User: What shape does this take?
Amino acid sequence: MKKHGEKLDLKNGNKNIYLLGGSSFFNDAGSEMITSILPFYITALGGGGVAVGLISGLREGLSSLFKLLGGWASDRTGRRMPFVFLGYLISVISRFLLIFANAWQMIIAFVSFERLGKARDAPRDAIISVSMKQKGRGFGIHQAFDTGGAIVGTILVLILYWFLSWDFKKIILIAAGISVLSLIPLSFVKEPKSKKSNESLFKGIKHLDKKLKYFIFVSAIFTIANFGLYMFLLLRARDLFGGIGYALGLFLLFNIVWAGLTIPFGNLSDKFGRKSILMLGYVLLAFVGIGFAYFSNFFLIALLFVSYGLVYAITQSNQRAFVADLSGEMKGTAMGFYQAVIGIVNIPAGIVAGFLWNVSYQTMFLYVAGVALVSVILLVFVRE
Assistant: This one.
């Protein structure tokens, strides 16, 4: 395998993280405006629990191949930013198309196209991984910007839907317009110098470290429990408290916790190790599943949304940092393979959860808790 490295001076590296974070801020503000109303939009167009689960899984699953190809192609060409820019552009276009959906099946088509833009993720994460020596902090900063955008997006939805009574399509139009701003910071990113890889896609995957492959397997099991769970949490909150506004308020609380604590948990993983920090998040997801199966009090449900925010703050950026730790030279391929596996798992996980939801919400949430506990056991054997 031909070795290749990436170099970026500290000043430009730190700047890149904030620029990529700014792009993610605007993209996720638009994305979260749509995400927070998507389960209600689906049900308004005639979709049931299976439709919600299917679309939830497809939002991640269909992007899997393109995440992998985007990461490998960026290694192969020695270029990252063209894939990053094109990915964000596709996401912007797809959100404008979503306005024209008049059946839940059309949402599948437009969401599937939007997922093509996720080819940006692995090249972007490869840039982040070499931009700051403390990878946990670097990914944490980027995640904080990303989730900060989600907070703004959720607040805007609350204002537009609850207070101004705008319909879903008008909200989606505003979300698409905000997403356009994500393209501006990308023009200022300094791409790190890297040599081209001569590895084929399959050889690149084959040469990845065995410890990395096992960790990706464990992450995949965790994803079976954590697929697109927030969609069902929103539906459960709506059913319990009789209104979409209450559900969106709790979703805002979830995002605030996620954004506020993702950098501290990134710092903790740099100091104490990824595995011990991730263990806390995996265990906490099991608690969330059990809680949603049996709790109905508003304050307890709010506590569970806070707990789920903690799960995301602990796991989302630190899993990516762990992959970066174990990826060696083929960072784009490693990131792409990790994201591809996680995405593929989301499809059957979402469908199964949708069927279980139709049986009963308790069945689905206990299933989530059980799978989360299995992932805890498997994480014990991960080697850092």
Observations:
- The chain is about 80% helix and 0% strand.
- The first strand starts at residue 6 and ends at 7.
- The chain has a mean pLDDT of 88.
- Residues 10-44 form the longest helix (35 residues).
